[in-house]
Amino acid sequence: MSDRITGAEALVRCLEAEGVDVLFGYPGGVALPIFDALYDSTKIRTVLPRHEQGAVHAADGYARVTGRPGVALVTSGPGAANTITGLANAYMDSIPVVVITAQVSTAVIGTDAFQEIDITGITVPITKHNYLVKNASELPEAMKEAFHIATTGRPGPVLIDVPVDVSKGELDFKYPDSVNLPGYKPTYKGHSKQIKQAVSLITRARRPLLYVGGGVLASGGAKELKELAELMQIPVTTTMMGKSVFPEDHHLWIGMPGMHGAKYTNYAITEADLLIAVGVRFDDRVTGKLAAFASKAKIVHIDVDPAEIGKNKPVDVPIVGDAKNVLAGIVAELRKAGAEPKTEAWVKVVDEWRKQFPLHYGGHDVAADHEQLYPQYVVQRISELTKDRPTVICTEVGQNQMWACQYYTLRHPRTWVSSGGLGTMGFGLPAAIGAQAGRPDALVVDIAGDGSIQMNIQELATAKVNGFPVKIVILNNGYLGMVRQWQELFYGRRYSASVLPQDCPDFVKLAEAFGCFGVRVERPGDVDSALQAAFDFDGPAIVDCRVVPEECVYPMVAPGASIDEMLGGVPGCPVSEMLDDELLEEVWE
Amino acid sequence: MKHTLSVVVENKPGVLTRVTSLFARRGFNIDSLAVGTTEDPTLSRITIVCSAADTPIEQITKQVHKLINVIKVQELDPSESVERELVLFKINAAPERRHEIIEIANVFRAKIVDVGRNSVTIEATGATDKVDAMEDLFRAYGIKEMARTGKIALTRGREG
User: Fold this and answer.
1) Other CB atoms closer than 10 Å to residue A357's CB: what's the count?
2) Please, what are the domains in chain B?
3) Is the pLDDT of residue B160 over 90?
4) What ipTM goes with this model?
């Protein structure tokens, strides 16, 4: 039986069919038919952000915590243009987001009509795929494909551009059951011969290391990862995108690698004889100088995207496939072969490094220091105060993000929301709103800097008005902290355009102006009570922490340097001098 | 190093842009490009001759393959494929030299498609080196204008 409805109504039905329960939408001229249709939907909650960038970041945050696609809807022209940063962010981090942009009528496309922009042309490099729908009858198929493409294979954002005459036009609605995409067939199952090769390397390795990233989260492979790590007692390093996939209080977790990785993490990569890279892309922030990265290791690379394998680093055993499937396959083979872990000495060595070169700051008892408030201490306290309740940690970008990486202990998959590849300042707050929409049960904390938070501060109104009680903890150091750090280290302390007065804006008053809770902290002794007050408050809150202004994130690998050459932190020395000879002999033959 | 890629894509608007912009974005230069439909009207074949300084060709073929509208990407080995290019030369030809030019064209089995008072237009097809050789010879007379289609190619018959 045919069901004659408008394009806009069809679009809403498609969203409902995809199980969309919340949509971040900002209306405007040519988007009005769609918003009008949404008005009748009882299944979809429409949340109005205060900027279209916020809409896409919120959809992104929602997707990261739920694993389901986030959806944003905006108008044409400037509305569409404002989605670009959000799309690029989701693209770089492989997050399933579906963005619907309204477009001027097909009759005037190409005439520079009011609020016309070629958004499909503009977003080709920053979407997994995009559509310009020219006929109402083509809309259901485009929607079905968009959701399919966004969520399968290597996930990513998909944009659908809907001209106003398409949303007003009529069609016989039927939502397709399946897609027909002859050019799109992701490989999920790893090649069994390759899996056997990987297994053979794993059973022989003396110094293996699992280097895992966002791909494992995306595949839902946290359990399989843990099984492999525990079965063979292999230490695990999670990239910033992979954070939360492996419990960070686990004895095999050895931190985040790369530019601001701990010394012990980077040493472990440098000395490993087998690197099992899963759902990672050997990003420059992880590898530093490529030639020196894991140069003693054979490399097994597992990824669902064949183009990532061998892109930056040659590999010994490439396995194209879904991380969860492939890890399960490896575990099954290992069990079948009755493989036993041989890594006791290696794990001991890494633990020794962990003791010798811990992450550290302040140099003395910071809790007892009544004057100096260290940003790292604030993060540690957030970690401690939230450890027994469901919590999602979001971050902005810069020092705040790196300290969150280093000092917050994540325990459950999909509790970490941070802009990785694009490094988008202003991501944290709108993403936190999306995360809260996806996880109403959780305490959502945005660890922020005073620079980043000002980039999308308008979203505080969204949080307040729509009842998303996100907690923003600002590590306020009066600088664009990471920029300042680079200027200190590489530009002779010439703080060009990186100074932000610590008291402008007054974040407490700003919180209050939005009807939120605001509290200022200047001394370590006040951190816990302020955080607790914010967490207990029934609504969004800002904790303005006036931290040590010129604190740097250490250790640090200078851009282009090898990752075992780190600035700051406990002074290092050649690996051979760090350990007793007996241990060395056992692990390095 | 030059490579010839044969890319079969869905015959839909905007697909060519998706393919070519990917080359630019990933640091590959396109030397020539030829597009047309295939035996199946819903599919087009794009033949691309490209070069890249350091990046292995495998990287661009994998990236191209990721495009949703791309059905097949194949690097063509010159010894295993048939390659042709079509070219039009408009050559300076005063009446007294016209004969020489026509002679050269005949040697290359090229066709005279237009004769003007002071010019001759020649159509030729062949592999790229043949077209290059003709171009070189005609330069001596002065090429007023030239248009080349870019290479098209198919693998040889034996694999069906």
Assistant:
1) 22
2) 2-76 (3.30.70.260), 82-155 (3.30.70.1150)
3) no
4) 0.90
